[in-house]
């Protein structure tokens, strides 16, 4: 009696290739996939170059003309070609993350959802044993994964650049930790912005069902969301208040939210027009100056607060998209 052997599953069987919705989606949107990979590669290459060779050349040029001395010459106000190249490349690497919400919203609203609903491709998929809910889940999950991996990669590279080149950045005094582009690229906000733009774009596509209309509304919504949160950012965490005698510079190392002068009664008033003159304080009744600001230690509280708002917006948009799809298709799942 011969023994019966059970076939051993191969590696391909244990780890099957992407099938169904995921594979179909990657094929359908392969142009967008390649564009995203190229964008990440270019930005990553720019940040890597700026971290070592670009920074070394810029610092050598900066110190070569004596700009690192206590009393630098006037020529230090005009950076040389090495510094210009360094700043341009860093701006390129950071700029990718800056425009990503607009690109993501435009693609999600136009090509990902709006075009498929307008052309009837989505309805065709729903007749091939694919429920509307599964279709929408794939449309959200696959881009969200790719966006998260790409943006976090660029964020980590930017943080390495920022920490390793702190001497050069501080000496040239051209970027601060709270500047919009730097703040977003150094933490979780850039990733959250992309995910929120994806969710808002998908909702716009489902609402309008037209490519161009959904694209325009998604871009407008993503831009508005980023703009509003930029304005709200200083108010997402309690400020630190410091006071000092007239003539002292306050909050220079942080994000100043409000500053001015204090009277003897403790009232806050704007800086007087005579500020800087010897007898100004005595003539206006000013006793001290004040500043409400965020020091560098508030970086992560502000980051996490803004990230939480963006993810909440994304979650609400995703929930609204599923509710809208269910009402329109009458599908249970």
How is this structure best described in words?
There is one protein chain. This protein is about 65% helix and about 10% strand. It has two domains: about 20-235 and about 300-330, no CATH class; about 240-295, no CATH class. It is α+β, with helices and mostly antiparallel strands. The chain is flat, with a radius of gyration of 27 Å. Keywords: Membrane, Transmembrane, Transmembrane helix.
Task: Describe the secondary-structure layout.
Layout: H1 11-14, H2 20-28, H3 30-64, H4 81-119, H5 121-126, H6 132-164, H7 166-172, H8 180-185, H9 189-208, H10 211-232, E1 240-244, E2 255-263, E3 268-269, H11 280-284, E4 286-294, H12 299-329
Antiparallel strand pairs: 1-4, 2-3, 2-4
Helix pairs in contact: 2-6, 3-4, 3-6, 4-6, 4-9, 4-10, 6-9, 6-12, 9-10, 9-12
Quick tags:
flat, single chain, four-stranded antiparallel sheet, alpha+beta, 333 residues
Strand content: 5-15%
The number of distinct structural domains comes to: 2
Helix content bin: 55-70%
Average pLDDT over all residues? 84
Physical arrangement of strands within the biggest beta sheet: 1-4-2-3
Shape: flat
Straight-line N-to-C gap: 51 Å
Largest sheet, strands/sense/barrel? 4 strands, antiparallel
Query: Secondary-structure element order, as H and E?
Result: HHHHHHHHHHEEEHEH
- The structure class reads alpha+beta
Number of helices in the DSSP assignment: 12
Question: Total number of β-strand segments?
Answer: 4
User: What would you report as the Rg, rounded to the nearest angstrom?
Assistant: 27 Å
Low-confidence stretches: 8-18
Transmembrane segments: 33-52, 89-113, 140-162, 182-204, 211-229, 307-325
Protein name: ABC transporter permease
Keywords: Membrane, Transmembrane, Transmembrane helix
């Amino acid at each position: 009696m011969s023994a019966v052997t059970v076939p051993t599953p191969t590696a391909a069987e244990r780890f099957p290739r992407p099938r169904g919705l995921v594979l179909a989606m990657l094929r359908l949107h392969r142009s967008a996939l390649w564009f995203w990979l190229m964008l990440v590669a270019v930005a990553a290459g720019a940040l890597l170059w700026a971290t070592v060779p670009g920074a070394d050349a810029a610092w050598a040029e900066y110190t070569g003309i004596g700009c690192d001395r206590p009393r630098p010459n006037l020529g230090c106000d005009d950076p040389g070609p090495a510094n210009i190249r360094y700043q341009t490349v860093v701006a390129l690497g950071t700029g990718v993350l800056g425009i990503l919400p607009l690109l993501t919203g435009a693609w999600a609203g136009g090509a990902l959802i709006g075009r498929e609903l307008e052309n009837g491709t989505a309805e065709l998929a729903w007749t091939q044993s694919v429920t509307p809910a599964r279709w929408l889940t794939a449309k959200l999950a696959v881009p969200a994964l790719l966006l998260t991996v790409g943006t976090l990669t660029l964020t980590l590279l930017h943080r390495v650049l920022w920490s390793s080149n702190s001497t050069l950045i501080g000496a040239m005094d051209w970027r601060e930790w709270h500047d919009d582009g730097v703040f977003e690229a150094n933490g979780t906000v850039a990733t959250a912005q992309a995910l929120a733009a994806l969710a808002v774009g998908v909702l716009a596509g489902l609402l309008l069902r037209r490519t161009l209309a959904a694209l325009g509304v998604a871009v407008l919504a993503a831009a508005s969301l980023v703009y509003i949160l930029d304005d709200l950012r200083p108010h997402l965490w309690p400020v630190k208040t410091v006071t000092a005698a007239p003539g002292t510079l306050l909050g220079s190392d942080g994000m100043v939210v409000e500053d001015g002068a204090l009277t003897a009664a403790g009232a806050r008033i704007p800086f007087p027009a005579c500020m800087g003159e010897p007898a100004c304080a005595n003539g206006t009744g000013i006793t001290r100056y004040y500043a409400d600001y965020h020091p560098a230690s508030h970086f992560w509280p502000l980051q996490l607060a803004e990230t939480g708002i963006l993810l909440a917006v994304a979650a609400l948009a995703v929930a609204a998209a599923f509710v809208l799809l269910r009402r329109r298709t009458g599908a249970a799942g």
